[in-house]
Amino acid sequence: MKRSTISSRDYLTFFATAKGSLFWRISGLFLLIFILLGISFDFITITLAKRYSDETMQKLNANVASHMLQHVKPFVNGSLDEKSLETIMRSMMAVNPSLEVYIISPDGTMLTSVVLHREVKPRTISTEPIKKFIKDKGNSLIYGDDPRNIGKSKIFSAAPVYENGVLLGYVYMVLAGSEFDSIALALQERYLEKIGLRSFAVTLGAAFLIGLFSLWLLMRSLRDIIDGVKKIGQGDLNARIRIQSEGELGRLSVTINQMAEMLLQNLDKLKEVDILRRDLIANISHDIRTPISIIHGYVETLIIKQKELSEEQRAEYLKTVITNTERLERLVADLFELSKLESKQITPKKEILYLLDLIQDLGAKYKLRANQKSITFEAECSIGNPTVHADVAMIDRVLQNLIDNAINYTPEFGKVRVFVSGDGEKAIIEVSNTGQGIPPDEIPKIFDRYYKVESLAGRGTGLGLAIVKNILDMHDTKIIVHSEPSKNTFSFTLPLVLK
Length: 499
Hints:
CATH topology of the largest domain: Heat Shock Protein 90
Strand content: 15-25%
CATH superfamily of the largest domain: Histidine kinase-like ATPase, C-terminal domain
Shape: rod-shaped
Oligomer: single chain
């Protein structure tokens, strides 16, 4: 979908209504994160830059102490030659004022030192960094104690002093002394103010503004989703959310639109079901009222005219009462059975079922009824006596309902046929009858609980076919209907038990 343009009115409306909203909360958090990231970045950068500078300087001056020993011997006959040392040490410091030169005993005691502009009190320092430096030959960054500042560390150069194979001490040179620190600190403050803070402020401001705009676009899409959901929640199921992106919010919009469409479809189905329910109640009321009225009328006649009626008339009236009582009983029983099937209160108890025996029993039962209507009834099996694994009572009920339905809708001199065949894996059971066909557009609906075929209205409630469908669903098979203008065939399959 084409994205709408952003006008100045959009901005004004947004900022006027966003106070205290999620937008400003996220914006504040966004700014805080940027500030913390900026401070962390500057701290890490300065720390790494210092280590880089220290390691560079230490490697460049790693052999300074060794070179000094090539020009002067600190010890003569085991005693410190302070005059010669001071001369050479001051010469070196004149070339590099950041140097601080110390002579250290093997146990770390300071024997003498040359430091510009300051006297250093003798103290003991750790010799472990010195030994590590000498062993590593200056290849790694190593910090040693600062004789002038207890607790601080400095980069250094060191070399052992031997006389006649005996270790007399170490030359310990601090490469970046206090003078160097003072100058470096002043320069660092100046450059940090001119470059660091300015660049940090510009970068932070630009990033924050870009992030703010991006967040505005994000919240704008979110507002559309919220507005759409509000409309749907207020009952407008035709409301739809504009799809403005293909990301997460776009997928969320699609999902909400699909949900609204599904709710709309379900609402239409509920309306249809409610209409069908009212029709069913009307049909059931009629079907129940008719036998009750007949029973009431005949019983009332028997009571009022019991002396005037002959024995034959009383017997005929009582027979009519029994017939309508049975009809009413079947109707109520069908309703209860269908309700139990739909609520899963009944489950199939499968066992071996011989189909030929079943259809022969049904043939014997229904031939007399069919003959009374001048209808030809046939029950045949083309594959011997096939066996299936099913609930005997349930399949018997399925065939009874289908045969009852076929006889009810077959005209005089018509034909009803039950036929069993097979394909090697499944038994195919068919119940067909001659008579009026079912309109093709109504075939998918005839098994619905609340549906009656318009052209066949008045001949039943449709409960029998609804029961058939539920039972076959429990047996993992489907009922198939094939209708012609003068013939209807209902068929289903059951897996054969292979011997």
